[in-house]
Write a structure and sequence with these properties.
The chain has one domain (about 1-185): Gcn5-related N-acetyltransferase (GNAT) (Aminopeptidase, 3-Layer(aba) Sandwich). It is α+β, with helices and mostly antiparallel strands. About 35% of the residues lie in helices and about 30% in strands. It has helices at about 15-30, 35-45, 70-80, 120-135, 150-160, 180-185; strands at about 5-10, 50-55, 60-70, 100-110, 140-150, 165, 175-180. The model has no long low-confidence stretch (mean pLDDT about 90). The chain is built from six helices and seven strands; from the N terminus they run βααββαβαβαββα.
Length: about 190
């Protein structure tokens, strides 16, 4: 069954896929978490190695988006008592070899018709492979943050190995996976 899905990631993500991501977000996310189309495309242009999408018969059925961010932004996410979901362009960085890289898991979205476990397994396997490659190439990841906005999101992050860091005032939760935990995750 997995061979019916196609992974498109990083610089191979087309404008059409970006448009489908926006539509899927509109279908599944509350309005307060939606980015406008221009902002989303600007973020992607800043770091094209940040989206893993999965297609079924040329139709987007899910994706994972993460951002490499400045250490200052990472610390802001940890300190904030509410969800941090906006980024200045200079806070989004490319991966840097032999430097401390910080990541935030920005979105994990699967179309309701495909929430059978297969799509999320494929996406998380691809994410892990991508991070294994970065680590093998000398791109050290010192901190990995995520904010869960749903119960399913919390379960997903905990299965990945994230630790609950803080309950937020907006009823979401910040999760963290730092250097040693991240090394355990990728190995």
């Amino acid at each position: 069954m997995e061979n019916q899905y196609v992974i498109v990631k990083n610089e191979n993500v087309t404008d059409e896929i970006l448009n489908q991501i926006i539509l899927l977000d509109q279908k599944l996310y509350p309005k307060k978490y939606l980015w406008n189309k221009d902002y989303q495309k600007m973020i992607y242009q800043r770091n094209k190695y940040s989206i893993i999408s999965i297609l079924f018969h040329q139709k987007l059925v899910g994706y994972i988006n993460y951002l490499v961010i400045s250490k200052e932004k990472y610390e802001e996410i940890k300190k904030s008592n509410t969800t941090v979901d906006t980024y200045q362009i200079e806070e989004i960085l490319p991966f840097q070899k032999h430097k401390q890289n910080y990541i935030t898991l920005n979105s994990v979205v699967v179309d309701k018709m495909f929430q059978n476990g297969v799509v999320i397994q494929i996406l998380t396997r691809e994410l892990k492979k991508q991070f294994q490659w970065y680590e093998a190439q000398g791109y050290s990841i010192f901190g990995f943050s995520a904010v869960a906005v749903s119960l399913d999101g919390r379960k997903f992050l905990e299965r990945m190995g994230f630790t609950l860091y803080k309950e937020l005032e907006d009823h979401n939760a910040t999760y963290i996976m730092e250097k040693d935990s991240f090394k355990k995750y990728v190995n």
